[in-house]
Amino acid sequence: MKKNIIFCKKCLYPSTHPLGITFDEKGICSGCQIHEEKNNLDWNFRLNKLKKLLKNYKSKKGNYDCVVPVTGAGDSHFIVHVAKNILKLNPLLVCHNKYFNTEVGIKNIANLRVKFDCDTLIQNINLDVIKKITRHTLMEFGNIYWPIIAGNSAFPVQIAAKYKIPLILWGAHQGIEQVGMFSHLHEVEMTRRYREDHDLFGKDEFSLLNVDNDIKDEDILQFIYPNKRTINSIGIRGLYLGNFIRWDSISQHKLMIKKYGYSATNLNRTFDTYNYIDCFNYSNLHDFLKLCKHGYSKVLDDACREIRYKRITRAQGLHLVRKYELNKLRNLNQFCDWVGISEQSLNFVIDRFKNKNFWHQSDIDKWSFNGISKKLMKSEKKIKNFSIKNFQSNFSRKNSTKKEYIYFGKGI
Ligand SMILES: [Zn+2]
């Protein structure tokens, strides 16, 4: 059923946001409303509150104080910096190997280990299993990132259980940052439920077994989230630093470049040079599948964030979205070879996931895009030229000879 889509008057998010979004009487979305807390809360008080809370988690038995999940991008450098230098904890870094690693991602993981002098555990799951599951999630849910997200969210909890470390530190909570799902004051913590419902799109690891495919019990072993009894017996909690520190991913990345030499680079489908740069496919096929299903891609998330921090206007944000969202995909051959399907089959799958609310099919292979940005253009004024200045790139892929996924590098 076609519903009328409404748009936030401040940012660019539509009422169809997959995480769920609400609007007040002025037409401002819940994400923008909760964002205002960043300007109103007493963040010194909140950081002190966290410091007090963590006193109970300093290990007295020579164990690690906390687990910190890391990647070669995202907020990993900043989280480790906060854990070690501000909270004075001894963290164990854990990293689920996504295998689509880029050179810059590997460089950043190596940098983390060297600059912060921490122990790191890497989870390398059998490649044949990963390919099998990726093929399945692509065909069934139009998603190539399920194994990566499932691994990223299960491995830290498995390690916390195995090493009996009761604390996991995460960065920002995506539901708070994008759609204001909770107030920062609710101090929500990591839950199995959120992982299943939102991170994994309602499909937990066991649901992979219930369909007609060749995925076996032993194939999902490394994706299993520890059971309640294990979590409760150790008292494992996963805290989000974004509830205690005024989170601003872009300012934080700039600080990490200055302080620790974090590497940033340009991406194909967004202006953000700091996040998701560790992956060949995130800012390509994965992002395009999002555009197919939801009518918008990562660049719209990035633009909404920048609008809320008042670093760009709404019209400039829309200009950036239109500039990037239909950029041609790169590395498709490589992905098809890797996963073992033809490019023709991949295109067939992609078309199958095009949401008719956002795509118009005029012939068997002719589609036109009628997504969120097109609908927004009807009401927002157009601007001709705008280039964003706030994003540095200190690593150039042109210098890189490696065009293949780097399974294992000097950081791993
Ligand atoms: Zn908004």
Give the C-alpha Rg.
Answer: 21 Å
Query: Given the helix and strand composition, which structural class is it?
Result: mainly alpha
**Cα shape:** globular
The number of helices is 17
> Helix share of residues?
40-55%
Which cofactors or ions or other ligands sit in this model? zinc ion
Name of the level-1 CATH class of the largest domain? Alpha Beta
Question: And the CATH topology of the largest domain?
Answer: Rossmann fold
The end-to-end span amounts to 48 Å
- Average pLDDT, to the nearest integer? 94
Q: Main β-sheet: number of strands, strand sense, barrel status?
A: 3 strands, parallel
Order of helices and strands: HHHEHEHEHHEHHHEHHHHHHEEH
Q: Report the count of strand segments.
A: 7
Which spans have pLDDT < 50 for at least 5 consecutive residues? none
Total domain units: 2
Q: What is the strand content?
A: 5-15%
Neighbour order of strands in the largest sheet: 1-2-3
CATH architecture of the largest domain: 3-Layer(aba) Sandwich
